[in-house]
Structures are given as C-alpha cells and as structure tokens.
Amino acid sequence: MQGFLPAPTLAQPRWFDMRLPRPYLVVSLLLAGFAFMGHTYAWAASPQFSGQARVGAMTGDQWEPSVAADASGHVFVLYPHYGQVSGCKGCSVPTMLLEASNDNGKTWQTPRVMLESGTGQFDAQIAVDPADHHTLYAAWLQNNKRVVMLARSADSGANWTFTIAVRSEVELDKPALAVRGQTVYVAFNHEEEVWVAVSQDGGRSFTATRVNAETRPGWSLLGSATIDPAGNMYLAWSSYSKSGGARGSVNLYVAKSADAGRSWNQSLLDVSAAAPGCDDDDCGEGYLGAQVVVASDSEGTLYALWSAGGATLGPQRIYFSSSTNGGESWLPRAGVSSAAPTVEHAFPAIVAGHAGDVRIAWMDQRVLDKNSVPYWNTYYRSSTNGGATWSDEVRISNYVAGYKYIAEQGFSFPFGDYFGLAIDNHGDTHIAWGEGLNYQSPGSIWHSSGR
After folding, report:
1. Which range of residues forms the domain containing residue 222?
2. How far apart are CA 442 and CA 418, in angstroms?
3. DSSP, res 206
4. CA distance 258 to 127
5. Which helix (H) or strand (E) is 382 found in, with range?
6. Cα separations (Å) of 310 from 141, 251, 270, 290, 344?
7. Which residues contact residue 345 at a Cβ distance below 8 angstroms, ignoring those fewer than 6 apart?
8. Three-class SS of residue 362?
9. From its phi and psi, is residue 181 left (phi > 0), alpha (psi between -120 and 50) or beta?
10. Beta bridge partners of 127
11. Is the pTM of this model over 0.85?
C-alpha cells in the first residue's frame, strides 16, 4: 500500500550526556604525491592492504558498518549488533555499538553502547566534520524506526550529546548523514518519499524538507550524502518502481541544494534494469539491486559510484562518473571493474579527500578458481586525478580460518545493504564491510586498511 508521510514533527531538542570509556578506464596509478590534513604523501602503483581482521562484538551478528577517521589517528566503526549486549539491561535487538581505535586501526577498544533503547536501533551512519577533521557525528533510526537520532562528540567519542532530529508517525528507512562546520543534515525516506532534516547549529535543531516532490509509486533507497566546501548539499538515491515488485526499472538520482536544504534540484544519473533475485539466500527482491553513492573532494569536485544493469534480471555492473560544475553535468559513465560481463556486482562505496583523490570499493561474485563455485569478494581502487586513471584492482577480502562462510575463494554472501570507506590522518584507506553465510545469519564485520 502506498504510504503517506505527514510533515515530520520536530521534537524540542533533547540532549543527553553519556561517557563512552553499506567500458573501464586505464588501470595503472601513476606515482603521485597528494596532500591530506596538511601532510604530503606518495603512493606506489599497486595499493597494499592489511589482511582482513574482525571488528565488533565476537558473539551475535553485526552488519552494515559505517566507518570514519579523524586527524588524530582515531578510527571509528558504528554498527547495529543483533544479539544481547552484556551489561546493558535496557538494550533491545539490535543495539547500536561503537568501536574505536586510537592508533589508526592497529588495535581496537571494546565495543560500547551509544545510547540505550528498548525499541531497537538501525542503519548506522558516522562522519567526521571535514572542516575541522575532529568533531564526530553519528545518526541512526530507533523507536520502531520512527525517530532519527543524531549524536555529536567533540572529544573523539569519549562523550556524546544526543538529540532527536526527526520524529515521524510512520516508519522511516536508511538515514544518510553529511556534515561540514555547523551544517548537519540527515536524509531519510518513507517508501518513495525522500526527506532531509537540516541543522545550521551543529545538530541542536532541525528543519525537515521533502526532496523529491514528484515521484512514481515505489520505494526509494538512499545511498549517501555530502556537503562540498562551498556549502552545497548533495544526496544520492535509487528509485524502485512499484510495478512488478522490485522487478521494474530503477532510476538513480543525485540531488543538489544550494540554499541550505530549503529547495532541491534532482538529476537523473542513470537507469538500471532489475537485478537478479536472491531467493537462495532468503533476501528481498531488491537486495542486490541498483545503488548509488556520492562524495566531494576538497576542491568541490563531485563523484558518483553506482551499480546498474542493462537487462532485466541480468548482472549489475559498477560505474563511476564525476562532475566539476556542481552536478549540472556529468562525464559519461565508466566501468571500473575488470570482472567478466556476466559477473554480478553490488554495494558501491566511495570516499574523497584532497583534490582529485577519490577511492572506491564494491563487492562482486567473480570466479577466482575455474574449478570453484562463485564467491563474493570486496574490491578496491583509487585515483589521484579524479578518476582519469585508476590504481590496480585490489581484492580486500581474504581467507580467515574458523568461519563457515569464508573460503579460500571468498565469502558466501554480503552481510548488510552497504559498507563504508574512510581516509585517516596518514592518508590510508580504512574499509569496514560485512560477510555472512546468507542474508539471515550468521555474519560479522571485517576491517582492512592500506593505500
């Protein structure tokens, strides 16, 4: 049934204090130097990453991690934990947990509860303010997915203040968080309707606005959000047609606001055919469907990465494009995966830093051994010139003994609808993603870093 979302009711800010102890280009990367957070780094032609290591709680299931890094060597992974949380009688399932590292991911602290809730917490988002490289924000859904929570920390996650950004009468889905200075915005959706709640005072108060005033019946799936150095806001999402369930076409949009979120202009980036279903893994029709994410670099260049397919129920590919005029026009899409045309791709992730520094990741099901069945793996590439050329493809996921969903050739299934990338103060990339046996469980979160 098509839903209707009344204008979200904004609650008076409620602040709490708490201490906490998801045709390809040339593939060679030229030797290059780049600046980040005031430092200069050089890259070799072939990126090198650490072996994957499990992060998060060691019992229960964890998925859909969001990752961020600041200028002081802290790395943060926020995720929903499906299982009882030891020592937290007021925590429901799932509970949002934060895991932090003080040494760029070499060691990790014990996971900690962000905010006790008896109704479950979903869809983690975490971000460091790119203006000061220090202030930390997080967002998620709770109260039966009818509240969007916003959390802020000025001391590397040791203490947090919380406010309700949006209170709704209907169930919401997938917040997308972006910050820059005192501007904070959280996008979210209800069925096909896309909304944003914008704050100009560091998250103390919010005003909600609908982004896509005219829509077709269906479902919107938010990808990500960004704010460029000029203060322009961008949001990316996929629009699934209600016709035929999730087996209709999927429109991929990027919208821009140049007036602090009061009005939005959306552009159609691409159109995808319906993706293959995943009945064998007990997940929904659109789980492996088209997604789109965006990022902006320090000079305001806009980047988009998305999955899309050309034939109904055919394989999805990964495409990249960029815009230097605020999304008014985009370069022709370019494939960035070297996998065969028949290989299924999903779950794009992107991050950008210094001018021209853009890094991307995705999952695909290419066969690594001709005598093996297809497994999923996480792949990564980077560019220092805005995507004109790319580094060699790197397989990030690898074999770890003791997990029935991990084989030498990869993992059984992506665990969660998305995963994340971040750039730390040394210029290294941090990747956090989920692996599992199938859509239901078991599964867990993994981390790798490198450049």
Report:
1. 24-46+56-450
2. 17
3. -
4. 21
5. strand 377-383
6. 33, 12, 11, 11, 12
7. 307, 315, 316, 317, 318, 337, 339, 362, 363, 364, 365
8. strand
9. left
10. 137
11. yes
Residue 280's pLDDT is what? 66
Domains identified in the chain, total number: 1
Residue 16 lies in a domain: no
Q: Is residue 433 part of a domain?
A: yes
**What distance lies between CA 10 and its chain's CA centroid?**
25
Which CATH number covers residue 79?
Answer: 2.120.10.10
C-alpha 104/C-alpha 440 separation (Å) is: 31
Does any domain span residue 4? Answer: no
Q: Kindly give, in sequence order, each residue whose CB lies less than 8 Å from that of residue 100, ignoring residues fewer than 6 positions away.
A: 74, 75, 76, 77, 108, 109, 156, 157
Q: Is 131 part of a structural domain of the chain?
A: yes
pLDDT at res. 389 = 97
Mean pLDDT by 10 residues, the chain (451 residues): 38 36 33 40 63 94 97 98 90 96 97 94 98 97 97 97 96 97 97 96 96 86 97 96 74 97 96 83 80 98 97 94 97 97 96 98 94 92 97 96 96 95 98 94 95 85
